[in-house]
Each structure stands twice: as structure tokens, then as C-alpha cells.
Design goal:
This protein is mainly alpha-helical. The protein has one domain. It is 39% helix and 0% strand. It has 2 helices and no strands. The longest helix has 10 residues. The chain is elongated. The relative contact order is 0.21.
Length: 51
């Protein structure tokens, strides 16, 4: 018998202070949309702030 397990995926992305403030004011989804619109590579640790 195979036991069922629940898997939760977690992700951490480095963001600037300005991006944090933006997310607090407009929501995380708005920040994610901004990243998508500006084609930001969130995995680039040397990137400039998108704000």
C-alpha cells in the first residue's frame, strides 16, 4: 500500500526595499504582475530594482 503525502512547494526570491514597499501597498500579486510585464528575472541576484 502506498501512503499519500502532501507536498508544498516554497520559493524565495530576493527583492529590493522598494519592491517590498510596493508589495505591501498594492499586494504581492501586483508585484508579480509588474515582474512579468517588465520581464524581470527574479532569480538574478545582481538585478536592479524594478521600481
Amino acid at each position: 500500500m502506498i501512503k499519500k503525502k502532501k507536498v508544498t512547494w516554497l520559493m524565495i526570491a530576493s527583492i529590493s526595499e522598494e519592491e517590498k514597499n510596493y508589495a505591501e501597498e498594492y499586494g504581492v500579486e501586483a508585484l508579480e504582475t509588474l515582474f512579468e510585464e517588465k520581464q524581470i528575472n527574479i532569480f538574478d541576484l545582481e538585478r536592479n530594482s524594478s521600481i
